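Note on ligand handling. Small-molecule inputs were canonicalized before submission; formal charges were left as drawn, and no protonation-state enumeration was performed. Where a ligand contained multiple stereocentres, the stereochemistry in the source SMILES was retained. For flavin-adenine dinucleotide, this procedure yielded the string shown in the input block below.
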Amino acid sequence: MQIQIYGAGIAGSYLYELLSQNGFKVRIYDLRNKPDCRCAWGIAYNEAKELYRKIGVDLDDYILSIPKEVVINGKIVLKNKNVYIFDRKRLLEDLWKDFEFEKAEADIVVDATGCSRAILPKIENDSIYYTIQTVEKHDLDENIYVQMRKTGYAWAFPLGDRWHIGAGDLSYERAMELIHQLREVYGIKDRGNECYCKAKIRMLPPSECKPIVYGNVYGVGEAVGCVSGGGEGNAPSLRCAWIFYECLANDKLDEYEKRVLEEFWWIEEEHKFVRAVQEGKKFTALRLLPKVVSIESKRSIQQSVKDIKNLLNLLRW
Ligand SMILES: Cc1cc2nc3c(=O)[nH]c(=O)nc-3n(C[C@H](O)[C@H](O)[C@H](O)COP(=O)(O)OP(=O)(O)OC[C@H]3O[C@@H](n4cnc5c(N)ncnc54)[C@H](O)[C@@H]3O)c2cc1C
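Structure output:
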């Protein structure tokens, strides 16, 4: 059985290693000749550490920083539990060193092309957000700084001796506005950057990214909505690739879609919450709030219902 993976981002690269190390006949292909450098370098450490171990990668070799706190709109300070900043680009570069990109007919095709979703049918009513990011030198305490509004947020992530400054919102113009606000609130001056780029992110949960499977094509990662309501897609995309691998290895590919939908129930809840906030549905949001707080307190940042209510008040809902 021949497998062809399209897309060698976080999910595709990981899946290629899982399959090839376990004796499957697999090819991989990416449009790029080097990994993209978008500033998606925050990762849910515990989960990613365990998943990368399965392909012989020690995530600790790529950790750049462990931020202490997450400061939101200059007013709310939360304790960081499990968001580590890793050198995503170097990790992918190391994996790509052993790849020979090729594409050909295959029995099973994997669409791991992320936001592009280049192989699976397009999603009706897709929801794509626009991001801008830079790398800059600053002298700040090693925290994550966030400037948020209902439709998006800007961030400053410590990379050791540099900072990733970026934002995502409904348009590039709105993302840029958020970056200006972030600079004002935290005194992060624009003294020029070493790198500047734009990207996109899909903000839809898996249940709204159907089909997840189409004939012999299987979607993995962001192509099928493995991105949380807060924009976390690295560990979920790895997890999704692992689920695909388990289904294939156990001859249970017919269960793949169901397993993806079950695994990412928490992403579904987060998107419902974000949507309720954006649409001003206060009581729906309040109903979902305890669940979202409990999910995120376990996987990323320590928070309480009171913290998030304070945040929602800042967002003037
Ligand atoms: C600016 C930004 C910041 C983010 N920050 C974070 C963060 O801090 N933490 C976090 O967890 N998540 C973050 N995310 C989300 C996260 O980056 C993605 O959800 C995650 O990378 C998805 O992994 P993936 O493998 O599915 O897709 P990707 O990593 O996007 O990989 C897709 C690959 O497919 C390739 N490709 C595209 N079209 C084709 C084609 N036609 N043929 C072949 N190859 C193709 C691309 O070149 C790319 O290499 C961020 C996203 C953005 C845009």
